[in-house]
Each structure stands twice: as C-alpha cells, then as structure tokens.
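ok so i was messing around last nite and threw this chain in just to see what happens. nothing serious, just curious
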Amino acid sequence: MPKRFDPTALRRIVVKVGSSSIINEEGLVRLGFLGKLATTIGRWRRDGVETVLVSSGAIAMGSLRIGRDEPPVRIQDKQALASIGQSQLMGLYQRLLSTLGVPVGQVLLSRDDLEDRRRYLNARETLQRLLELGAVPIINENDSVAVDEIQFGDNDQLSALVAGLVGADLLVLLTNVDGLYDSDPRENPDAKVIERLDRSLEEMLEITNGKPSAFGKGGMRSKLEAAQLCHNYGIHCVIARGRGSVLQAVLAGRPTGTYVPPSERGLSGRERWLANAALVAGELVLDDGAVEAMTMGHHSLLPSGIVRLTGDFARGAVIKLVDQRGKEIGRGVVRYGRPALEKIIGKRGDEIEKTLGFTYGDRVIHRDNIVLTG
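result:
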C-alpha cells in the first residue's frame, strides 16, 4: 500500500492530545503513553522535525489533584480546576521531556488572541521563536479566564488553527477511538474505520456524531471540522487513537487511523486568519450575480451586488459573505462601514462618491481581501 505522504518532507508537526489520552477511565495518568509521546518528540527533534503540542487535560488534572471524581459543571469550577491542573500538566510534560534534553514553553491562548490580527501575528512570532530555540511549545486554551463568548469550545479547532498559524506540514489528532468510522460504531458493530477521508464534511457529519468524553469537550464532529480546516489550509491530518507507538506509525505513513489529505491549493497565512480565526463583525447578503462573479471569476465585490446587511461594523472589519439562501460563500475585509454602506447598497461603483461625498474606491471588498469558504 502506498504511503499517505512523504515522511521525509515533514519539517513541522502539530500533535493534539485530548484529555482521554492523558487520564484513563479509572482516573489515572497514562504515564506509559505520555512517556512514549515524549520519546517520539525527542527523536523527531534529533531528526530535525519540529513539534508543537496542543494539550487538553488541565481540568482533568485539576480534578485529579484535589480528588474530584465528577467533571465540573459550573464555569467557576471549570476555571478554578483549570488553574490548578495547568501547572500540574506542564510539570508532567517538563519532567518527561527534560530527561531527553528538550525544553518546553507554555503558551495559553484564547479566541481573542487569534481574532485580532496584531495579536495573531504576535502569537505566531512567539511560537516561531520557541521553535528556533529548540523548545517544544505546549499550547492549551486559557481555560482559567475564558468565558463562553471567547472559548474555542475544544482543542481540536485550536490545534487546527495553530497548525495554520505555524505553517505545519501535519496535524495529528490523538483521541480515544481508532479514527472516523463509516457508520456509528455504537449502533453498528460492523462499522469500519475510514482509512482515507475523501467525502465532504457535510456527508461525514451525517454519519458521525461522536460524544465527548467525561472531561473532554470535543467529539468526532469537532475533529472532522478541525480536519476540514487542515484540508483547506493544505495541511495533512491524521485522526488516530492515542496509544502505544501510534506517532511512529503515523509519521511512517502507515495506515493508522483516518487520513485527511490536504487540498491542492492551500490558503496563505493571511487567508487562513481571514477564513477561520478573524472576528466576524457582520454579514452581507449577495445576489446571484455577485456570488457567481466571486466564486467563478474571483472578482471584487461591488455595491450593486449587495442585497442587505447585518451587524454594526466599521471600515476594515471582517465580514461574512452569504448568498440569499444563507449559505456562506466567503469572508472579506470591507472598505466601508455600515453607515456608509447602507447608503450605497445596490448602486454602481461610479455612484459612490456622488452619494457619500467621498470614496474609498468603487469596490466594497477588493478581491485580494476575499477568501472563499463555501
């Protein structure tokens, strides 16, 4: 069987470790697996392959530290346990990797850090410098201060965004199942792991509805969505069970777990931020002509193609672009704020200055500031 990708071409890998890969069902730390994980990362480092680790488990470690068996429900409890557990989690990784001479650096991120373009670039520069210093960045969501409005929801999405942020070649999502199945294994005992995923996200979501573990927040849906991000970014992705020597098998390109190949055209760094990380301030509904011009001809958006708008946004905001049936087409950086845009909807580009008394050009969004997502 041919390999999924050329392992010798991999120079930067992001590994996401879920809570179930750190704490077993009996509530004990999986030291055997984590030791193998550290050994693999150390070996990759000697071979010139950089690793970024996105690790869940702070809440689970905090619960273990204070002897709590049940997962927390209240946000205050989650934040407190995350605060206790994060230091425990980092201490564990530090002990495991320091024996191999590998330094680690903690990076806690919230959605705000990636939505703001300046903070996004700052995070990228910090991670790049850690890798240059030979350290392994260990990333987690900043659960101790995050609230619902700024949470990623799970570290699957965070790991995909980080893979795009650092320009990784491969994302490995380690979970508590063998991969994605062709049907729900809880209902069908003959369900088989899909070795290579070439179906659309929508098709797979009809099949997959995995439930999160007790302390985890993500199920198979979140892993699918993360894999879809990697596909769009042009990054290889593997979803596999976090056990044994799984990483060695993945890196060798052997059929372990589910492989999601990258798209032929990966998005640029700015396009990745615009498509998935940036804060969306509003929405523009486009007529069929504008949708066709953007999707088929990669044209700019003119005011004549806008049917209506929602949101309170200023010039320079990131806006979602949808068709009249509500389907997202893309996102872009708008040249006109809402007050001005309301006055020029449906008008020709050469009517803007006469209508407003000023102009930033005849295009509402230039094609260079549009990324298609639909």
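not much to say yet. The first helix runs from residue 19 to 22.
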